[in-house]
Structures
1.
Amino acid sequence: MTALVIDGKQLAQKLRSEWKLRADRLNAAGMAPGLAAVVIGDNPASKIYVRNKIKACREIGIRSEEHVLGAGSTLPAVLALIDRLNADAGIHGILVQLPLPAQLAPAVVIERISPDKDVDGLHSRNLGSLLSGHPRFVPCTPAGIMEMLKTTGLNLRGKEAVVVGRSNIVGKPVALLLLQAGATVTLCHSQTRNLAQHTRRADVLVCAIGKPHAIGGEMIKLGAAVIDVGINRSAEEKLVGDVDYGAALQRAGWITPVPGGVGPMTIAMLLCNTILSAERHAAEQGIQLGA
Ligand code: GUN
Protein backbone atom coordinates (compact mmCIF):
# COMPACT_ATOMS: atom_id res chain seq x y z
CA MET A 1 0.00 0.00 0.00
CA THR A 2 1.22 3.52 -0.78
CA ALA A 3 -0.46 6.20 1.26
CA LEU A 4 -2.14 9.22 -0.28
CA VAL A 5 -0.29 12.35 0.80
CA ILE A 6 -2.50 15.09 2.27
CA ASP A 7 -0.86 18.23 0.94
CA GLY A 8 -1.36 20.87 3.64
CA LYS A 9 0.23 23.60 1.58
CA GLN A 10 -2.19 23.09 -1.29
CA LEU A 11 -5.24 22.74 0.97
CA ALA A 12 -4.25 25.87 2.90
CA GLN A 13 -3.90 27.76 -0.37
CA LYS A 14 -7.39 26.68 -1.48
CA LEU A 15 -9.00 27.66 1.83
CA ARG A 16 -7.14 30.96 1.89
CA SER A 17 -8.47 31.95 -1.51
CA GLU A 18 -12.02 31.31 -0.20
CA TRP A 19 -11.37 33.34 2.95
CA LYS A 20 -9.84 36.16 0.98
CA LEU A 21 -13.35 36.89 -0.32
CA ARG A 22 -14.56 37.26 3.27
CA ALA A 23 -11.61 39.53 4.09
CA ASP A 24 -12.42 41.59 0.98
CA ARG A 25 -16.02 42.04 2.14
CA LEU A 26 -14.86 43.19 5.58
CA ASN A 27 -12.37 45.63 4.07
CA ALA A 28 -15.02 46.99 1.70
CA ALA A 29 -17.33 47.60 4.68
CA GLY A 30 -14.60 49.57 6.48
CA MET A 31 -13.99 46.79 9.02
CA ALA A 32 -10.41 45.84 8.08
CA PRO A 33 -9.66 42.61 9.97
CA GLY A 34 -6.65 43.13 12.25
CA LEU A 35 -4.29 40.68 13.96
CA ALA A 36 -1.64 41.46 16.58
CA ALA A 37 1.14 38.91 16.99
CA VAL A 38 3.28 39.10 20.11
CA VAL A 39 6.70 37.45 20.15
CA ILE A 40 8.65 37.45 23.40
CA GLY A 41 12.29 36.41 23.50
CA ASP A 42 14.73 34.98 21.00
CA ASN A 43 13.31 31.58 20.08
CA PRO A 44 14.35 31.32 16.40
CA ALA A 45 11.47 28.97 15.48
CA SER A 46 8.92 31.37 17.02
CA LYS A 47 10.33 34.25 14.98
CA ILE A 48 9.99 32.23 11.76
CA TYR A 49 6.43 31.08 12.61
CA VAL A 50 5.31 34.62 13.37
CA ARG A 51 6.94 35.99 10.23
CA ASN A 52 5.03 33.37 8.21
CA LYS A 53 1.77 34.29 9.96
CA ILE A 54 2.27 37.99 9.20
CA LYS A 55 3.06 37.22 5.55
CA ALA A 56 -0.07 35.06 5.23
CA CYS A 57 -2.18 37.87 6.70
CA ARG A 58 -0.84 40.32 4.16
CA GLU A 59 -1.65 37.95 1.29
CA ILE A 60 -5.34 37.75 2.08
CA GLY A 61 -6.02 41.29 3.25
CA ILE A 62 -5.72 41.03 7.03
CA ARG A 63 -3.94 43.99 8.62
CA SER A 64 -1.32 42.70 11.02
CA GLU A 65 1.14 44.10 13.50
CA GLU A 66 4.04 42.37 15.18
CA HIS A 67 5.04 43.25 18.74
CA VAL A 68 8.51 42.04 19.66
CA LEU A 69 9.47 42.03 23.35
CA GLY A 70 12.84 41.12 24.84
CA ALA A 71 13.61 37.78 26.49
CA GLY A 72 13.80 39.50 29.88
CA SER A 73 10.33 41.10 29.66
CA THR A 74 8.46 41.26 32.94
CA LEU A 75 4.93 39.99 33.45
CA PRO A 76 3.51 43.51 34.10
CA ALA A 77 5.03 44.74 30.81
CA VAL A 78 3.52 41.85 28.85
CA LEU A 79 0.11 42.22 30.51
CA ALA A 80 0.14 45.98 29.81
CA LEU A 81 0.69 45.30 26.10
CA ILE A 82 -2.14 42.75 26.06
CA ASP A 83 -4.45 45.23 27.83
CA ARG A 84 -3.65 47.82 25.17
CA LEU A 85 -4.38 45.35 22.35
CA ASN A 86 -7.60 44.20 24.06
CA ALA A 87 -8.78 47.83 24.04
CA ASP A 88 -7.77 48.50 20.41
CA ALA A 89 -10.93 48.44 18.24
CA GLY A 90 -8.83 47.83 15.09
CA ILE A 91 -7.47 44.54 16.46
CA HIS A 92 -9.76 41.50 16.20
CA GLY A 93 -7.22 38.81 16.96
CA ILE A 94 -4.33 38.60 19.45
CA LEU A 95 -1.83 35.80 19.52
CA VAL A 96 1.07 35.41 21.88
CA GLN A 97 3.52 33.00 20.30
CA LEU A 98 4.49 30.09 22.56
CA PRO A 99 6.75 28.99 24.17
CA LEU A 100 7.36 31.93 26.50
CA PRO A 101 10.55 32.73 28.45
CA ALA A 102 10.65 30.91 31.79
CA GLN A 103 9.67 33.94 33.94
CA LEU A 104 6.29 34.23 32.16
CA ALA A 105 3.62 31.67 33.04
CA PRO A 106 1.72 30.93 29.79
CA ALA A 107 -1.56 30.40 31.66
CA VAL A 108 -1.38 33.91 33.19
CA VAL A 109 -0.47 35.57 29.89
CA ILE A 110 -3.10 33.76 27.82
CA GLU A 111 -5.84 34.40 30.40
CA ARG A 112 -5.26 38.13 29.99
CA ILE A 113 -6.21 38.06 26.28
CA SER A 114 -9.84 38.99 25.75
CA PRO A 115 -11.66 35.70 24.97
CA ASP A 116 -13.33 37.59 22.09
CA LYS A 117 -9.91 38.21 20.49
CA ASP A 118 -8.28 34.90 21.42
CA VAL A 119 -7.87 33.61 17.85
CA ASP A 120 -5.57 30.83 19.10
CA GLY A 121 -8.52 29.46 21.09
CA LEU A 122 -6.33 28.86 24.15
CA HIS A 123 -8.10 31.01 26.77
CA SER A 124 -9.84 28.84 29.37
CA ARG A 125 -13.20 30.31 28.31
CA ASN A 126 -12.63 29.18 24.72
CA LEU A 127 -11.27 25.78 25.75
CA GLY A 128 -14.35 25.43 27.97
CA SER A 129 -16.64 26.24 25.03
CA LEU A 130 -14.86 23.59 23.00
CA LEU A 131 -15.33 21.08 25.82
CA SER A 132 -19.05 21.83 25.98
CA GLY A 133 -19.34 21.26 22.22
CA HIS A 134 -20.03 24.89 21.22
CA PRO A 135 -16.62 26.31 20.37
CA ARG A 136 -16.20 30.02 19.62
CA PHE A 137 -12.56 29.82 18.50
CA VAL A 138 -11.11 26.38 17.81
CA PRO A 139 -7.32 26.20 18.40
CA CYS A 140 -5.58 26.50 15.03
CA THR A 141 -3.60 23.27 14.75
CA PRO A 142 -6.51 21.03 15.84
CA ALA A 143 -8.86 22.91 13.48
CA GLY A 144 -6.37 22.41 10.64
CA ILE A 145 -6.12 18.70 11.42
CA MET A 146 -9.91 18.32 11.17
CA GLU A 147 -9.89 20.12 7.78
CA MET A 148 -7.21 17.70 6.57
CA LEU A 149 -9.20 14.69 7.77
CA LYS A 150 -12.24 16.01 5.88
CA THR A 151 -10.32 15.66 2.61
CA THR A 152 -9.99 11.88 3.17
CA GLY A 153 -13.77 11.46 2.98
CA LEU A 154 -13.58 9.20 6.07
CA ASN A 155 -16.68 9.16 8.23
CA LEU A 156 -15.22 9.46 11.72
CA ARG A 157 -18.30 8.09 13.48
CA GLY A 158 -17.33 4.95 15.39
CA LYS A 159 -13.72 5.04 14.17
CA GLU A 160 -10.82 4.45 16.53
CA ALA A 161 -8.83 7.67 16.87
CA VAL A 162 -5.59 7.71 18.82
CA VAL A 163 -3.89 10.98 19.73
CA VAL A 164 -0.32 10.86 21.00
CA GLY A 165 0.56 13.97 23.05
CA ARG A 166 -1.60 15.73 25.63
CA SER A 167 -0.72 19.42 25.24
CA ASN A 168 -3.34 22.13 25.71
CA ILE A 169 -2.50 23.48 22.27
CA VAL A 170 -2.85 20.27 20.21
CA GLY A 171 -3.41 16.93 21.94
CA LYS A 172 -6.31 17.75 24.28
CA PRO A 173 -8.30 19.96 21.87
CA VAL A 174 -7.90 17.62 18.88
CA ALA A 175 -9.07 14.73 21.08
CA LEU A 176 -12.22 16.75 21.88
CA LEU A 177 -12.85 17.53 18.20
CA LEU A 178 -12.45 13.88 17.21
CA LEU A 179 -14.80 12.91 20.03
CA GLN A 180 -17.33 15.44 18.82
CA ALA A 181 -17.05 13.95 15.33
CA GLY A 182 -18.11 10.58 16.77
CA ALA A 183 -14.75 8.80 16.99
CA THR A 184 -13.76 6.62 19.93
CA VAL A 185 -10.76 8.52 21.21
CA THR A 186 -7.69 7.34 23.09
CA LEU A 187 -5.34 10.04 24.34
CA CYS A 188 -1.80 8.71 24.84
CA HIS A 189 1.15 10.52 26.39
CA SER A 190 4.63 10.09 27.78
CA GLN A 191 3.42 7.86 30.64
CA THR A 192 1.38 5.54 28.39
CA ARG A 193 2.43 1.92 28.64
CA ASN A 194 2.92 0.01 25.42
CA LEU A 195 2.18 2.88 23.07
CA ALA A 196 2.32 0.65 19.99
CA GLN A 197 -0.56 -1.46 21.31
CA HIS A 198 -2.74 1.68 21.13
CA THR A 199 -1.45 3.18 17.89
CA ARG A 200 -1.84 -0.11 16.01
CA ARG A 201 -5.61 0.04 16.62
CA ALA A 202 -5.94 3.56 15.22
CA ASP A 203 -8.00 4.28 12.10
CA VAL A 204 -6.95 7.89 12.70
CA LEU A 205 -3.57 8.51 14.33
CA VAL A 206 -2.56 12.02 15.37
CA CYS A 207 1.05 12.36 16.53
CA ALA A 208 2.02 15.47 18.47
CA ILE A 209 4.97 14.38 20.56
CA GLY A 210 7.92 16.43 19.34
CA LYS A 211 10.34 13.50 18.92
CA PRO A 212 11.75 12.65 15.50
CA HIS A 213 10.61 9.28 14.15
CA ALA A 214 8.93 8.27 17.42
CA ILE A 215 6.22 6.46 15.44
CA GLY A 216 7.63 3.64 13.32
CA GLY A 217 5.83 1.86 10.48
CA GLU A 218 5.06 -1.17 12.67
CA MET A 219 3.00 1.10 14.97
CA ILE A 220 0.58 2.05 12.18
CA LYS A 221 -2.58 0.15 11.22
CA LEU A 222 -2.81 -0.68 7.51
CA GLY A 223 -4.88 2.00 5.76
CA ALA A 224 -4.91 4.46 8.70
CA ALA A 225 -5.07 8.24 8.31
CA VAL A 226 -1.85 9.48 9.92
CA ILE A 227 -1.53 13.14 10.90
CA ASP A 228 1.99 14.18 11.86
CA VAL A 229 2.07 17.38 13.91
CA GLY A 230 5.75 17.16 14.89
CA ILE A 231 8.29 19.58 13.47
CA ASN A 232 11.71 18.40 14.60
CA ARG A 233 15.31 18.81 13.46
CA SER A 234 16.93 15.50 12.58
CA ALA A 235 20.60 14.78 13.33
CA GLU A 236 21.29 15.96 9.73
CA GLU A 237 19.48 19.27 10.48
CA LYS A 238 16.55 18.32 8.24
CA LEU A 239 12.94 19.09 9.28
CA VAL A 240 11.23 15.82 10.16
CA GLY A 241 7.98 14.86 11.86
CA ASP A 242 7.20 12.47 14.71
CA VAL A 243 6.43 9.70 12.23
CA ASP A 244 8.91 7.67 10.19
CA TYR A 245 7.52 9.02 6.93
CA GLY A 246 9.11 6.48 4.56
CA ALA A 247 7.82 3.54 6.59
CA ALA A 248 4.40 5.13 7.10
CA LEU A 249 3.99 5.65 3.34
CA GLN A 250 4.03 1.87 2.95
CA ARG A 251 1.32 1.22 5.56
CA ALA A 252 -0.99 4.22 5.96
CA GLY A 253 -3.97 5.09 3.77
CA TRP A 254 -3.25 8.81 4.14
CA ILE A 255 -0.29 10.68 5.57
CA THR A 256 0.62 14.32 6.11
CA PRO A 257 4.17 15.35 5.16
CA VAL A 258 6.62 17.43 7.22
CA PRO A 259 7.17 20.13 6.15
CA GLY A 260 4.12 21.07 4.06
CA GLY A 261 1.46 19.26 6.10
CA VAL A 262 -0.03 20.50 9.35
CA GLY A 263 2.18 23.64 9.55
CA PRO A 264 0.54 25.59 6.69
CA MET A 265 -2.90 24.53 7.93
CA THR A 266 -2.21 26.01 11.39
CA ILE A 267 -1.53 29.36 9.76
CA ALA A 268 -4.61 29.07 7.53
CA MET A 269 -6.88 28.45 10.53
CA LEU A 270 -5.42 31.48 12.32
CA LEU A 271 -6.50 33.59 9.35
CA CYS A 272 -9.93 31.99 9.46
CA ASN A 273 -10.35 32.72 13.18
CA THR A 274 -9.24 36.33 12.69
CA ILE A 275 -11.78 36.86 9.90
CA LEU A 276 -14.46 35.19 12.01
CA SER A 277 -13.66 37.53 14.88
CA ALA A 278 -13.86 40.61 12.64
CA GLU A 279 -17.18 39.37 11.19
CA ARG A 280 -18.58 38.99 14.72
CA HIS A 281 -17.37 42.47 15.54
CA ALA A 282 -19.06 43.84 12.40
CA ALA A 283 -22.32 42.07 13.31
CA GLU A 284 -22.21 43.55 16.85
CA GLN A 285 -21.81 47.01 15.33
CA GLY A 286 -24.69 46.42 12.90
CA ILE A 287 -22.34 46.69 9.92
CA GLN A 288 -23.76 44.97 6.82
CA LEU A 289 -21.28 42.96 4.78
CA GLY A 290 -21.84 42.78 1.02
CA ALA A 291 -22.50 39.48 -0.79
N1 GUN B 1 3.60 27.77 19.18
C1 GUN B 1 3.51 26.69 18.38
N2 GUN B 1 2.30 26.64 17.80
C2 GUN B 1 1.61 27.71 18.22
C3 GUN B 1 0.29 28.21 17.95
O1 GUN B 1 -0.50 27.63 17.20
N3 GUN B 1 -0.03 29.35 18.60
C4 GUN B 1 0.81 29.99 19.44
N4 GUN B 1 0.39 31.11 20.02
N5 GUN B 1 2.04 29.56 19.72
C5 GUN B 1 2.42 28.42 19.11
2.
Amino acid sequence: MSGYSVHKILEMKPLNDEVFVMCVEAESNGAPGQFYMLREPDTTDPMMGRPISISDVDGNKIYFLIQIMGEGTKLLSKKRAGDEILLMGPLGNGFTLVEGKTAMLAGTAGIAPFLYLSKQLKQKPDLYVGYRSGSYYTEEFKDTTENIYIATEDGSVGHKGYALDILDIDKYDTIYVCGPMPMVKATLKKFPDANTQVSLEAYMGCGFGACMSCLCDTIKGRKGICKVGPVFNGKELIFNE
Ligand code: FES
Protein backbone atom coordinates (compact mmCIF):
# COMPACT_ATOMS: atom_id res chain seq x y z
CA MET A 1 0.00 0.00 0.00
CA SER A 2 1.60 3.21 -1.15
CA GLY A 3 -0.57 5.53 0.96
CA TYR A 4 -1.94 8.89 0.05
CA SER A 5 -0.29 11.28 -2.39
CA VAL A 6 -1.02 14.95 -3.02
CA HIS A 7 -2.67 16.04 -6.27
CA LYS A 8 -4.09 19.22 -7.73
CA ILE A 9 -7.80 19.68 -8.34
CA LEU A 10 -8.31 20.96 -11.88
CA GLU A 11 -12.06 21.47 -11.87
CA MET A 12 -15.10 21.30 -9.58
CA LYS A 13 -18.42 21.03 -11.37
CA PRO A 14 -21.63 20.99 -9.31
CA LEU A 15 -24.42 18.92 -10.88
CA ASN A 16 -26.98 19.85 -8.22
CA ASP A 17 -27.02 20.71 -4.50
CA GLU A 18 -25.64 17.37 -3.44
CA VAL A 19 -23.69 15.95 -6.37
CA PHE A 20 -20.56 17.28 -8.03
CA VAL A 21 -17.75 16.16 -10.31
CA MET A 22 -14.18 16.67 -9.20
CA CYS A 23 -11.41 16.47 -11.80
CA VAL A 24 -7.98 15.72 -10.35
CA GLU A 25 -4.61 15.91 -12.05
CA ALA A 26 -3.24 12.39 -11.79
CA GLU A 27 -2.26 9.45 -13.96
CA SER A 28 -4.41 6.37 -13.41
CA ASN A 29 -4.08 2.75 -14.42
CA GLY A 30 -7.34 2.00 -12.63
CA ALA A 31 -10.03 -0.23 -14.13
CA PRO A 32 -13.74 0.61 -14.29
CA GLY A 33 -15.32 -0.10 -10.91
CA GLN A 34 -12.11 0.45 -8.97
CA PHE A 35 -12.02 3.35 -6.55
CA TYR A 36 -9.72 5.80 -4.84
CA MET A 37 -9.75 7.01 -1.26
CA LEU A 38 -10.03 10.81 -1.35
CA ARG A 39 -9.11 12.89 1.65
CA GLU A 40 -9.08 16.56 2.46
CA PRO A 41 -5.38 17.37 3.19
CA ASP A 42 -6.15 19.51 6.24
CA THR A 43 -7.90 16.74 8.18
CA THR A 44 -5.75 15.02 10.74
CA ASP A 45 -8.16 12.10 11.10
CA PRO A 46 -6.74 9.22 9.01
CA MET A 47 -10.22 7.69 8.80
CA MET A 48 -11.64 10.71 6.97
CA GLY A 49 -10.77 9.27 3.56
CA ARG A 50 -13.82 8.54 1.43
CA PRO A 51 -14.06 5.80 -1.22
CA ILE A 52 -14.97 7.29 -4.58
CA SER A 53 -15.13 5.24 -7.75
CA ILE A 54 -13.43 6.31 -10.93
CA SER A 55 -16.00 8.02 -13.17
CA ASP A 56 -13.63 8.62 -16.04
CA VAL A 57 -9.98 8.86 -16.94
CA ASP A 58 -8.65 11.13 -19.65
CA GLY A 59 -4.87 11.41 -20.01
CA ASN A 60 -3.58 12.74 -16.74
CA LYS A 61 -7.03 13.59 -15.43
CA ILE A 62 -9.23 11.45 -13.20
CA TYR A 63 -12.90 12.37 -12.80
CA PHE A 64 -14.87 11.55 -9.66
CA LEU A 65 -18.63 11.96 -9.36
CA ILE A 66 -19.29 12.54 -5.67
CA GLN A 67 -22.52 12.68 -3.69
CA ILE A 68 -22.48 14.56 -0.39
CA MET A 69 -23.38 11.91 2.18
CA GLY A 70 -21.70 13.09 5.38
CA GLU A 71 -18.80 15.01 6.86
CA GLY A 72 -16.06 13.54 4.62
CA THR A 73 -17.82 14.19 1.33
CA LYS A 74 -18.98 17.61 2.56
CA LEU A 75 -15.35 18.58 3.09
CA LEU A 76 -14.56 17.38 -0.43
CA SER A 77 -17.43 19.46 -1.84
CA LYS A 78 -15.85 22.63 -0.44
CA LYS A 79 -12.67 22.20 -2.46
CA ARG A 80 -12.05 24.46 -5.43
CA ALA A 81 -9.98 24.26 -8.63
CA GLY A 82 -6.34 24.81 -7.72
CA ASP A 83 -6.70 23.26 -4.25
CA GLU A 84 -4.90 20.10 -3.28
CA ILE A 85 -6.43 16.72 -2.49
CA LEU A 86 -5.02 13.47 -1.16
CA LEU A 87 -5.56 10.37 -3.29
CA MET A 88 -4.85 6.71 -2.57
CA GLY A 89 -5.51 4.08 -5.20
CA PRO A 90 -6.66 2.63 -7.47
CA LEU A 91 -8.12 0.18 -4.96
CA GLY A 92 -10.34 -2.89 -4.97
CA ASN A 93 -11.53 -5.07 -7.82
CA GLY A 94 -13.59 -3.53 -10.57
CA PHE A 95 -15.99 -4.77 -13.23
CA THR A 96 -15.11 -7.63 -15.55
CA LEU A 97 -15.46 -6.57 -19.17
CA VAL A 98 -17.73 -9.06 -20.89
CA GLU A 99 -18.81 -9.71 -24.46
CA GLY A 100 -22.45 -9.60 -25.49
CA LYS A 101 -25.33 -7.29 -24.73
CA THR A 102 -25.05 -5.53 -21.41
CA ALA A 103 -27.07 -3.09 -19.35
CA MET A 104 -25.81 -0.74 -16.68
CA LEU A 105 -28.40 -0.22 -13.94
CA ALA A 106 -27.73 2.79 -11.72
CA GLY A 107 -29.48 4.34 -8.76
CA THR A 108 -28.77 8.08 -8.49
CA ALA A 109 -25.02 8.65 -7.91
CA GLY A 110 -24.53 4.94 -8.59
CA ILE A 111 -24.07 6.12 -12.15
CA ALA A 112 -20.54 7.16 -11.12
CA PRO A 113 -18.48 4.19 -12.37
CA PHE A 114 -20.47 3.60 -15.55
CA LEU A 115 -19.07 6.23 -17.89
CA TYR A 116 -15.60 4.74 -17.68
CA LEU A 117 -17.08 1.25 -17.97
CA SER A 118 -19.15 2.15 -21.03
CA LYS A 119 -16.04 3.43 -22.78
CA GLN A 120 -14.27 0.12 -22.33
CA LEU A 121 -17.00 -2.35 -23.27
CA LYS A 122 -16.63 -3.64 -26.85
CA GLN A 123 -20.37 -3.54 -27.50
CA LYS A 124 -22.16 -0.38 -26.45
CA PRO A 125 -24.28 -1.03 -23.33
CA ASP A 126 -27.72 0.34 -22.48
CA LEU A 127 -27.95 2.63 -19.46
CA TYR A 128 -30.87 2.53 -17.02
CA VAL A 129 -30.70 5.17 -14.33
CA GLY A 130 -33.10 6.17 -11.62
CA TYR A 131 -33.27 9.41 -9.65
CA ARG A 132 -35.59 10.82 -7.01
CA SER A 133 -36.30 13.95 -9.06
CA GLY A 134 -34.68 15.41 -12.16
CA SER A 135 -31.61 13.88 -13.73
CA TYR A 136 -27.90 14.55 -14.16
CA TYR A 137 -24.78 13.16 -15.82
CA THR A 138 -26.67 11.38 -18.60
CA GLU A 139 -25.50 13.61 -21.48
CA GLU A 140 -22.01 12.24 -20.93
CA PHE A 141 -23.23 8.81 -22.04
CA LYS A 142 -24.58 9.91 -25.42
CA ASP A 143 -21.71 8.47 -27.46
CA THR A 144 -20.83 5.46 -25.35
CA THR A 145 -24.23 3.81 -24.91
CA GLU A 146 -26.83 2.38 -27.26
CA ASN A 147 -29.92 3.52 -25.33
CA ILE A 148 -30.46 5.61 -22.20
CA TYR A 149 -33.53 4.97 -20.05
CA ILE A 150 -34.29 7.39 -17.23
CA ALA A 151 -36.73 6.93 -14.35
CA THR A 152 -37.62 9.34 -11.58
CA GLU A 153 -39.63 8.69 -8.46
CA ASP A 154 -41.65 11.87 -8.95
CA GLY A 155 -42.06 11.43 -12.70
CA SER A 156 -40.24 14.70 -13.51
CA VAL A 157 -38.06 12.95 -16.13
CA GLY A 158 -38.71 9.70 -17.99
CA HIS A 159 -40.57 6.80 -16.43
CA LYS A 160 -42.34 7.52 -13.13
CA GLY A 161 -40.98 4.95 -10.73
CA TYR A 162 -37.74 3.00 -10.61
CA ALA A 163 -35.22 2.17 -13.32
CA LEU A 164 -35.57 -1.45 -12.29
CA ASP A 165 -39.25 -1.35 -13.39
CA ILE A 166 -38.30 -0.77 -17.03
CA LEU A 167 -35.33 -3.11 -17.32
CA ASP A 168 -36.16 -5.93 -19.75
CA ILE A 169 -33.82 -8.59 -18.43
CA ASP A 170 -34.32 -10.90 -21.41
CA LYS A 171 -32.51 -8.44 -23.67
CA TYR A 172 -29.21 -8.75 -21.86
CA ASP A 173 -26.40 -11.21 -21.21
CA THR A 174 -25.04 -9.28 -18.22
CA ILE A 175 -26.29 -6.50 -15.96
CA TYR A 176 -23.88 -4.15 -14.22
CA VAL A 177 -25.47 -2.72 -11.07
CA CYS A 178 -24.47 0.20 -8.86
CA GLY A 179 -26.58 2.20 -6.44
CA PRO A 180 -27.98 2.37 -2.93
CA MET A 181 -28.33 -0.93 -1.08
CA PRO A 182 -32.18 -1.10 -1.27
CA MET A 183 -31.93 -0.86 -5.05
CA VAL A 184 -29.21 -3.51 -5.21
CA LYS A 185 -31.26 -5.87 -3.05
CA ALA A 186 -34.42 -5.27 -5.09
CA THR A 187 -32.52 -6.01 -8.29
CA LEU A 188 -31.06 -9.26 -7.04
CA LYS A 189 -34.41 -10.30 -5.60
CA LYS A 190 -36.19 -9.62 -8.87
CA PHE A 191 -33.54 -11.27 -11.06
CA PRO A 192 -31.83 -13.93 -8.91
CA ASP A 193 -30.70 -15.95 -11.93
CA ALA A 194 -29.35 -13.10 -14.05
CA ASN A 195 -25.64 -12.57 -14.61
CA THR A 196 -25.03 -9.51 -12.49
CA GLN A 197 -21.92 -7.66 -11.50
CA VAL A 198 -22.77 -5.54 -8.50
CA SER A 199 -20.72 -2.66 -7.14
CA LEU A 200 -21.50 -2.29 -3.44
CA GLU A 201 -21.40 1.01 -1.61
CA ALA A 202 -20.07 0.88 1.93
CA TYR A 203 -18.71 3.03 4.68
CA MET A 204 -14.96 2.55 4.50
CA GLY A 205 -12.34 3.54 7.03
CA CYS A 206 -9.05 2.45 5.52
CA GLY A 207 -9.90 1.30 1.98
CA PHE A 208 -7.43 -1.58 1.90
CA GLY A 209 -8.59 -4.36 4.20
CA ALA A 210 -7.20 -3.30 7.57
CA CYS A 211 -10.08 -1.83 9.60
CA MET A 212 -12.83 -4.41 8.93
CA SER A 213 -15.46 -1.68 8.62
CA CYS A 214 -16.79 -2.76 5.23
CA LEU A 215 -17.69 -6.45 5.46
CA CYS A 216 -20.45 -8.16 3.47
CA ASP A 217 -21.69 -11.74 3.44
CA THR A 218 -21.08 -13.93 0.43
CA ILE A 219 -21.42 -17.63 -0.30
CA LYS A 220 -17.64 -17.72 0.19
CA GLY A 221 -17.83 -16.16 3.67
CA ARG A 222 -17.50 -12.60 4.95
CA LYS A 223 -15.50 -10.42 2.62
CA GLY A 224 -14.15 -6.89 2.76
CA ILE A 225 -15.96 -4.77 0.20
CA CYS A 226 -12.86 -2.60 -0.19
CA LYS A 227 -10.52 -5.45 -0.94
CA VAL A 228 -12.48 -8.31 -2.53
CA GLY A 229 -15.04 -5.88 -4.01
CA PRO A 230 -16.42 -3.37 -4.43
CA VAL A 231 -17.66 -5.39 -7.43
CA PHE A 232 -19.15 -8.81 -6.69
CA ASN A 233 -20.93 -11.47 -8.68
CA GLY A 234 -24.55 -10.83 -7.67
CA LYS A 235 -25.22 -14.56 -7.32
CA GLU A 236 -22.58 -14.77 -4.58
CA LEU A 237 -23.98 -12.04 -2.33
CA ILE A 238 -26.06 -12.89 0.74
CA PHE A 239 -28.33 -10.40 2.46
CA ASN A 240 -29.64 -11.34 5.89
CA GLU A 241 -32.96 -9.56 5.73
FE1 FES B 1 -11.09 -0.95 6.05
FE2 FES B 1 -12.52 -2.20 4.15
S1 FES B 1 -12.43 -0.12 4.59
S2 FES B 1 -11.34 -3.07 5.74
